[in-house]
């Protein structure tokens, strides 16, 4: 999956939940491609198997939709604390916490850094490190509706994804999975990416260090603005703080 294709587009909304990390109970005759029975309808993707084994998230009838949850990403370059917002994206938060509990993000690299004038994000969440891996399931968007118009876009179609925003990457409508992106400077995007939290100040300092390192050059492009970070950024561990 990707942001803007297989980069940011790979990001999808996350939802917080205090439920256990076990897969929902399904009838023995259930089709393995059927979605879960709850309101989030997490749907298996047999054609896109999980980059790392993980069951479907729990999907309770009453998805937790109040309050915030703190999650810590510990990277080789420093901590990136996140504050997940259940109100804005309950199903996204629920899925993200499920993946954290199952150590889906442990020892994974952030595979994409963008440094365009209007798109400045770090994208993570694919254990394969290729930008095409996911959790073996997808779920619907929980899109923002109150973002201000991007002043750089005369068409009025793009909105401001502000510095510190945490959002899901995707490959098109309702294709959220495990990939997410962290905005290190105000960016202009169509409001097609679920926002499910924010990056705390110490995390922004880590992001600034990654951004200052720039995008890794290649033989084809000695000064790229989109690609792997020059400073390899590895999520070593993740845990739920509260």
TrEMBL record:
Residues 75-240 form the PPIase cyclophilin-type domain. It is an enzyme of class 5 (isomerase). Coiled coil: none annotated. The keyword Hydrolase does not apply. The keyword Isomerase applies. It catalyses: [protein]-peptidylproline (omega=180) = [protein]-peptidylproline (omega=0). GO terms for molecular function: peptidyl-prolyl cis-trans isomerase activity. PROSITE patterns: CSA_PPIASE_2. Residues 12-66 are annotated as: Disordered. Pfam families: Pro_isomerase (PF00160). Its EC number is 5.2.1.8. Keywords: Isomerase, Rotamase. It comes from the Bacteria. Residues 12-24 have a biased composition (Low complexity). PPIases accelerate the folding of proteins. It catalyzes the cis-trans isomerization of proline imidic peptide bonds in oligopeptides. PANTHER family: PEPTIDYL-PROLYL CIS-TRANS ISOMERASE B-RELATED, PEPTIDYL-PROLYL CIS-TRANS ISOMERASE-RELATED. Belongs to the cyclophilin-type PPIase family. This is Peptidyl-prolyl cis-trans isomerase. It comes from Couchioplanes caeruleus subsp. caeruleus.
């Amino acid at each position: 999956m990707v942001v803007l294709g297989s980069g940011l587009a790979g990001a999808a909304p996350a939802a917080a939940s205090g439920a256990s990390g076990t897969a929902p109970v399904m009838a023995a005759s259930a089709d393995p491609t059927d979605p879960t029975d709850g309101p989030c309808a997490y749907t298996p993707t047999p054609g896109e198997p999980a980059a790392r084994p993980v069951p479907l998230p729990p999907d309770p009838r009453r998805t937790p939709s109040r309050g915030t949850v703190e999650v810590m990403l510990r990277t080789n370059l420093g901590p990136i604390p996140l504050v997940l917002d259940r109100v804005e994206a309950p199903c996204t938060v629920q899925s993200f916490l499920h993946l954290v509990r199952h150590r889906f993000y442990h020892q994974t690299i952030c595979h994409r850094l963008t440094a365009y004038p209007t798109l400045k994000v770090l994208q993570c969440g694919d254990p394969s490190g290729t930008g095409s891996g996911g959790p073996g399931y997808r779920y619907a968007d929980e899109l923002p509706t109150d973002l201000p118009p991007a002043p750089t876009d005369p068409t009025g179609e793009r909105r401001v994804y502000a510095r510190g925003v945490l959002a899901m990457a995707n490959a098109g409508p309702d294709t959220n999975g495990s990939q997410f992106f962290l905005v290190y400077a105000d960016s202009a995007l169509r409001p097609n990416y679920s926002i499910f939290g924010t990056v705390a100040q110490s995390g922004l300092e880590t992001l600034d260090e990654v951004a200052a390192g720039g995008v890794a050059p290649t033989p084809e492009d000695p000064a790229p603005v989109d690609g792997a970070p020059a400073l390899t950024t590895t999520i070593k561990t993740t845990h739920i703080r509260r």
